[in-house]
Amino acid sequence: MLDLLQITNDPAFAGRCDALDGMRLFVDLERMGKAERQAGRDTFISQHTVADVGRIREAARRSPLMVRVNPLNPGTAEEVEAVLAEGADLLMLPMFHRAAQLREFAAIVGGRAPIVALLETAAALETLDEWITTPGLHEVFLGLNDLHLALGHRFMFEPLALGLVDHVAQAARSCGLRFGFGGIARLGEGLLPGRDVLAEHLRLGSQAVILSRTFHRQDEGEGRFELEVQALRRAEVELAQRTPQQMQADARRIAASIEAIAAGLPRRA
């Protein structure tokens, strides 16, 4: 069962998520440099605070709680101490470029929580073999939003069509690490439909995906979020029953769809 990562600082909603199996709550403290990197794009810029970590921990006792901190900076040690004190179970480091940065972060954490490396820079992709054996590393998660921009791609899922996600998945697997990537829309929504994204997660042995903002719409009635998660779980079971040949055929079709979508998008200046 995939971990479904839900970004939230709403204790009431976190409590609803906590009632579902296979959820991972996600408080996002990253702000340094993010607005500049993703300017002009319809992406999420968090306003979460350290205090939100404690509020979500109190509301959700069953699901693991992950906190994305800011990129490594002079205040990282203080930030790590604060989020651990508030009850974080896992710590995610974004926007690292070199093995030395991830190792410095691991030294700060000092084994007190598992580390999730958010691979979202071209340099981190190029130096994968140098940092994937970092002590304390628990999971490698590909952040396709920033990574596709760093690589000069037009569409977020192009690294998937080009085999880059396959490469990282294999590297993580060979080191006994968990692996996940990107976000997922509702099954029939998104430029690349959620069902196709889910199919690729299962082919690659992924263990984690971020639920997009479309899963929880404030204007929808109580219970719709739960129904959409249930639909995704049913599709997860169905897609897991495909033969290897069916998985490869789906992968070729999905790669062609990604290439067609990318070809229709303007190049980023």
UniProtKB/TrEMBL annotation:
Annotated InterPro entries: Aldolase/citrate-lyase_domain, Pyrv/PenolPyrv_kinase-like_dom, Pyrv_kinase-like_dom_sf
SUPFAM superfamilies per the UniProt record, alphabetical: Phosphoenolpyruvate/pyruvate domain
Keywords, comma-separated and alphabetical: Metal-binding
Highest rank taxon of the organism: Bacteria
UniProt keyword Cytoplasm, yes or no: no
Domain HpcH/HpaI aldolase/citrate lyase: 63-155
Molecular function in Gene Ontology: catalytic activity; metal ion binding
Protein name (database record): Aldolase
